[in-house]
Amino acid sequence: MKLKKVFAGLAAAATMLGGLAFGASTAIAADDCLLTADPTAEASSKTITIKADDYRQLITNEHISSSTTYTSRSFTAIKLADYAVQQLTVDNVAGGAKYSLNLKTVSDLTVSGAISAALGTNSGYPLSDGDVMEWVSTHLLSDNDSGTEGQKTLRDFATALAKQNFDNAGNNVKESLSGDVTVNGQAGTLTLNPKNGAGVYLLIDASGDVTKFAGKIYAASAPIIIGTPVVSTQGTNSSCVAHSDGIVNIKNETVPLGIFQFTKNDGDGKALGGAKFVISKTVDGKTYYGKYNVETWDWTSELKPTDYTQKEAAGVFTSDATTGHVTFYKLPKGTYTITEVQAPDGFLQNVLPSFTIEITGFDSLTNAAQFNVTSTDQFWKLVSYTEGGQIDGKDNPDSKLVVKNVTSVTQLPLTGGAGIVLFGVIGAVLAGGAVLTFVRSRKTKMALMMA
User: Fold this and answer.
1) Of 137, 101, 106, which Cα lies nearest the Cα of 119?
2) Which domain holds residue 237?
3) Cα 430 to Cα 434: distance, rounded to the nearest angstrom
4) Is the pLDDT of residue 390 over 60?
5) What is the mean pLDDT of residues 198-226?
6) Sign of dihedral through CA atoms 164, 168, 172, 175?
7) What is the mean pLDDT of residues 250-261?
8) Using CA of residue 256, residue 163, residue 210, residue 25, what is the dihedral sign?
9) 174 and 271: one domain?
10) Do 101 and 191 share a domain, yes or no?
């Protein structure tokens, strides 16, 4: 009896993909996967184990003491394939093997459709009419292979698969998983017990990036494809279940954080304190305003702060009275919009600038943000940069941002359309004054005539 290479490229279905790290070894399958016992019979064959060098990568709560209960990350588990076990007769198989093992894609149409959509076109590997997950296990390259152009790696497949819509998947293939975390020194182990039984799963980290532990951000795991353990005694073909222990190791991955700072000046270039700013970012088309408290950012509010007497914890950031600096600590890489909401007393309140930056990295010594200015309030020209920076396509990575306030419209460095608008505003004001003078003179004349 000749069986397909069930675990080729699938890395024995257990250590294939490890979130932020990959399995250390890849099984090399022979033509048959033959076993002396049912590989899914034992209870331990229905568990998934995730390990990390830093246990905090596996939890979502701040661990204060030994009495604190660990709250594990939560994963959306999508079952992709069952282990199809076939009992054999001794007459047909040498070496006393009694069982064969294949993969069988689940019958749920949402899942099978998502698998096909994630595969797309694989150059050199036309999709056969056979089982799609067996095709995946047989033909997709391991992540350590360079492959040829157009061929997907297992990481490509996992990433594409996690982006599919599983809303209509049945409860027999989709579930939410969390579990028990055990700690040994700094290392941690998370044990998951999918109720949908032995097989191959896609795990999507539902907890996202977690900001805990003195402001550190622990990144969400990348999508994981993993099989539950094949625990039975190996038969004539020992390699077909090598390393199939249902364990995956993820790296300790924290999101780098740094400092973004700009300077607030008056119209004469002197440091200006007391200016109020808010910071926001856009996620899925929605704007969220940042609040900074105890070295931790909160980006859950869609309401723009309105009480400007408050401080960073309420989302209001104030320029320093001595230096004019406005400083944002522990910002991760990303795109942010900073808007002035209140100028200091004596400065124009209806001419308030805003600008958008993209933080791309941080200086290894100072932790200062490396950033590009992607847009500014070009109308009033109150945002400027020195020593470079990238703004309007000009590439100078060591930018120093300066944001101005003015006391009079005559201090505005207006050009182009802004100058025209200001000219129009002044004209309108003068015209309004002329009308008011005319009306008043008419009233005075009428009063004199009536007298």
Assistant:
1) 137
2) 11-255
3) 6
4) no
5) 83
6) positive
7) 79
8) negative
9) no
10) yes
